[in-house]
C-alpha cells in the first residue's frame, strides 16, 4: 500500500466528487456560465490533488482527515478561493454564492459534507476499500495454514514416527 504519497489517479474519484459538489453549489445561484463553472471545477480539482498529494493514506483513511477538510466559516477556504480567483471571482462574490458555513471532508473512499454548524452530515461519495491481501505473517492464520504457506510439505503419508522411552 501507498504510505502518504497518494497518486493523483488514486484520489481522483474523491477529489472529483468534492470539486463537482462545490461547482454545483455555485451553479445553483445561476450567476456563472458553464465555462466558468467547468474552469472552476478543473482548477479546484487540480488544487486539491496537489494539496493532498503527501497527505493521502488509503491504508489509513482517517489519517490526515483534518488536513484534507475544506472549510468555510467566516473565512473562505484558501483552495476554493484560489480556484475562484482563476476564473475572476472576487472574495465577496464567492461568499455571496456559497453557504456561510460549509465543511467538506475529502478522505480516501469517502467524501461527505455538512452545511451549517448544526446540519446533518451527508455522504457525497462512498466506496468500499479494497480487501487487503492476506500476509503470511497474519496473526489470524493458524499454525497449519502458516506452515502450508511457507512452502514446506508434510512428510509422506507412509512415514511412521515412533517415540521410544
Keywords for this structure?
13% strand, 165 residues, 5 helices, alpha+beta, four-stranded antiparallel sheet, elongated
What does this 3D model show about the protein?
The mean pLDDT is 84. The chain has helices at 8-27, 34-52, 78-86, 91-97, 143-149; strands at residues 70-73, 101-107, 110-115, 122-126. The protein is an alpha+beta fold and 165 residues long. It contains five helices and four strands. Helix 2 crosses helix 3.
In short:
Helix content is 38%, strand content 13%.
Number of distinct beta strands: 4
Strand content: 5-15%
Count of DSSP H/I helices: 5
Mean pLDDT: 84
SSE series: HHEHHEEEH
Query: Oligomer, anyone?
Result: single chain
Topology:
Layout lengths: L7 H20 L6 H19 L17 E4 L4 H9 L4 H7 L3 E7 L2 E6 L6 E5 L16 H7 L16
Antiparallel strand pairs: 1-2, 2-3, 3-4
